[in-house]
Specification:
It is a single chain. The chain is elongated. The model has no long low-confidence stretch (mean pLDDT about 95). The chain has about 240 residues and is an alpha+beta fold. A hairpin with a 4-residue loop joins strand 6 and strand 7. Helices cover about 35% and strands about 25% of the residues.
C-alpha cells in the first residue's frame, strides 16, 4: 500500500529530470534496488543540499505512491565519501563498484551482504585511496558474485567434480574444469585461480595481489560467468 518508509541507501546513479529534479537509482538496506525522484534537488536552495550525489550513503524517508518511483521526503548523510572524490583512481573504482551493483542487483529485494559489501568498498576507497588497484576491484567483484549467488567453482571441476581440475575455466560450467570437460573453456592458470580463491577468502581490506596476466584471466572469468549466468555484462577492470 502507498505510504512512507525509512531506509538507509547508497546512491548508485543520479539522472537529471525536468527543470530541477533528479531521478535516483538507490541500493537500499531494507528493499534492495529502489528508484526515486528528488524534487527540486537541483535548485540552489534545495532542502536536500548536496546529500543525494552518487556514492553518498544516506538515511532517507521515501514516499511510495502509485507510480514506479518513490519520492524523497527527507535525507540525512551517513557518509559522503568526500576524500574518495579527491582522487581520480578512487572515484573511478567507486563508480565501477556502484555500476556493478546497479547491473547485478535489479530487483526490489533486500540483499544485506551486497549492501554491506558496497558500503565497505566505498569506505575503504575513501579511507585508503591507495587501495584503488585493479586487484582490489576484482576482489570486490568476486565477493559481489558470492553475494549474488554466482560464485564460481574453484575447488574442483565444475562439471564432473574432478578434484585435480585446474588450468581451464568454463563460464558455461561456472568454474574450473578438467581436460575431459574443457569444451568452451579458456586458460585460467594457477596464479589466476589462486587469486580468485584468495579474493573470496580474505577481507576486502586485505585483497590479494597478482601479476597482470593472472588478473586478466580472473577478470575474464568474472565477466563471462556473469554474462552467461546472470545475463549481465560488466566492463572489464582496467
Amino acid at each position: 500500500m502507498p505510504g512512507s518508509f525509512k531506509t538507509e541507501a547508497v546512491v548508485l546513479r543520479s539522472i537529471r529530470f525536468g527543470e530541477a529534479d533528479r531521478v535516483l537509482h538507490l541500493y537500499t538496506e531494507e528493499r534492495g534496488r529502489v528508484g526515486a525522484i528528488a524534487k527540486g534537488v537541483r535548485r540552489v536552495r534545495s532542502r536536500f543540499g548536496g546529500r543525494l550525489e552518487p556514492l553518498f550513503r544516506v538515511r532517507l524517508i521515501l514516499h511510495e505512491g502509485r507510480g514506479d518511483l518513490c519520492t524523497v521526503s527527507a535525507a540525512e548523510t551517513v557518509h559522503p565519501h568526500a576524500r574518495l572524490r579527491e582522487h581520480r583512481e578512487g572515484l573511478d573504482r567507486g563508480v565501477q563498484a556502484a555500476d556493478a551493483v546497479l547491473r547485478l542487483f535489479d530487483a526490489a529485494e533486500p540483499n544485506r551482504p551486497a549492501y554491506n559489501l558496497l558500503c565497505q568498498e566505498l569506505a575503504l576507497l575513501d579511507h585508503s585511496p591507495e587501495a584503488a588497484t585493479r586487484a582490489q576491484a576484482l576482489a570486490f567483484r568476486m565477493k559481489l558474485m558470492l553475494a549474488a549467488g554466482f560464485a564460481p567453482e574453484l575447488a574442483g571441476c565444475a562439471t564432473c567434480g574432478e578434484v585435480e581440475a585446474g588450468g581451464l575455466f568454463s563460464p558455461a560450467a561456472g568454474g574450473v574444469v578438467c581436460s575431459a570437460c574443457e569444451a568452451g573453456a579458456f586458460p585460467l592458470e594457477r596464479p589466476g585461480q589462486e587469486f580468485m580463491v584468495a579474493a573470496l577468502a580474505r577481507p576486502l581490506a586485505e585483497a590479494p595481489t597478482a601479476a597482470d596476466p593472472a588478473l586478466r584471466q580472473a577478470d575474464r572469468a568474472i565477466v563471462e560467468t556473469l554474462e552467461h549466468h546472470a545475463h549481465v555484462r560488466l566492463r572489464r577492470v582496467a
